[in-house]
Amino acid sequence: MDFFEAIAMTPRPDIPARAADLGRLAPVNYTSGTTSYPKGCRHTQGHMLYTAAANHLRAESFSETTLNFFPQFWIAGQNHGLVYQIFSGTTLVLLSRWDPLAFMMAVSTQRVGATTMLVDNLVEVMNHPRFAEFDLSCLKLIRCVSFVKKLGLEIRQLWTAHYPDAVLCESAWGMTETHTANTVTIGFQDDDFDLRSRPTFVGVPSPGTDFKICSFETGELLPPGSEGEICCRSPAVFDGYLNAPEATREALRDGWLHSGDIGQIDENGFIHYLGRKKDLIKVNGMSVAPAEIEAVLVTHPAVFAVAVVPRRDEQCGERPVAFVELKKNAEAVSPASMADWCRQRIATYKVPEIRVIPEFPLGTTGKIRKDVLRDWL
Predict the structure, then answer these.
(1) Which ranges carry the AMP-binding enzyme C-terminal domain (predicted)?
(2) Domain check: are 320 and 174 in the same one?
(3) Angle 100-110/119-126 helices, nearest 10 degrees?
(4) Mean pLDDT of 176-193
(5) 313: which strand partners?
């Protein structure tokens, strides 16, 4: 018997209707723990509903069938592999794990229109020996997550050379505390505006979400163009950390989440993400954001991925150190030549020491373990 016929024939229990309680605790989503121990974020039914609605508005025109392979314990996997589809009534193709061949087979046979994936996954698909065998033209929206490899012009152009109608964009800024996806980058791809802007570009606020940049020291609101702490207010900001009242009071103040992220709102209202305050490097008293160095170095033709951490230095306090993973079959390049390459593009005091490594240590959600890199130093 067909599965859906069997479901239709199954007697339904007489369950009394119950009013929705949007303030009721739903999931407890844990942070990735890349800079400290993971913390449980208390989220409600209402948080999930808002996040789904905001994402539906920005992506509803692209597809009635989506695909997810992110693990469900990760909040992005929960959203892209459960919450969004329940809200919108769209079809979900669910892969139990990442496999490039299974991905291409699923997209082509199920006519998947939208998905979210790591930039590394996208590169792996294009480099697969059977890539040309599959028709992936149905894939109109690919939201890329940049944990290791960053989305750049070269990668976008490689994909659109095969599928010019596809929209390939960054998945934007978000945190486990905000239920993720709090900015919008869809719609800024004309003439590659998003990628040709400052490399820290993460778009504009999602509907119903407010942003401000504040001083880390005083909490004072800073004018446009200033660098400071990204503060976010939205219907999806968490209710607090599980069993951690002190950390909750530090993060939630007067209805705003103080993210611990360094950012900027420019004169046009675009938001830029510069990294975590915990990662900020002080060189002779001047602040250096690792994200800025990473965004520059990843455009080097031989670089596959990069992560920057500080090293203690007796003369200037700290120095940035860039761990670099090279592309496969890349031409030999010395750390000194890469440093010279950086010197032509960023201020001298920001130029990092270069350390080439075979691969990065990754956490369970695919993020680079910068705490491990600091231990290596």
Answers:
(1) 292-367
(2) no
(3) 80
(4) 93
(5) 317
Name residues whose C-beta falls within 8 Å of residue 197's C-beta, 6 or more positions apart in sequence.
270
Report percent pLDDT > 70 for the chain: 97
CB 319 within 8 A of CB 282: no
| Shared domain check, 294 and 182 | no
Cα 63 → chain centroid: 21
Q: How many domains does the chain have?
A: 2
CATH code assigned at 177: 3.40.50.12780
- Report which of 249, 245, 262, 311 is spatially closest to residue 282, judged by C-alpha positions: 311
In a domain, 334, yes or no: yes
Residue 256 lies in a domain: no
CA distance 186 to 139: 15
Percent helix, strand, coil in the chain, to 5, is 30, 30, 40
Q: Which residue reads 């200037």 in tokens? A: 316
* 58: confidence class by pLDDT, cuts 50, 70, 90: low
247 in a structural domain: no
Alpha-helical (H) ranges within 141-213 are 153-162, 193-196
Q: Report yes or no on 149 lying in a domain.
A: yes
- Give the CATH number of the domain where residue 335 resides: 3.30.300.30
Of the three residues 180, 207, 234, the one that is the final residue of a domain is 207
**Is the pLDDT assigned to residue 198 strictly greater than 90?**
no
pTM, 2 dp:
0.80
Where does the pLDDT of residue 20 fall: very low under 50, low under 70, confident under 90, or very high at 90 and above?
A: confident
